[in-house]
Design brief:
This protein is of the alpha+beta class and about 70 residues long. It has one domain. The protein contains 2 helices and 2 strands. A hairpin with a 2-residue loop joins strand 1 and strand 2. The longest helix is centred in the last third of the chain and has 20 residues. The mean pLDDT is about 90.
Length: about 70
Amino acid sequence: MNAIKLAAIALIIGGVLGLAYGSFSYTKDTTAMKLGPIELSVKETETVNIPVWAGIAAIVAGGLLLVLGSKGR
């Protein structure tokens, strides 16, 4: 399997996951205060929304790469 097919499959899978879940969240550690040996850290949860058009565009781009990549040979 060549790199173009792998990229196409990754785009299709990413697009499907983006449409299925719609968003993902992650936790970010930040240091709020540091006073000598005492450190106060805060964990913040960030949520990133994935637009529907981005998921559809990734699926279409992956499909085009898959079709056009196989026609080139």
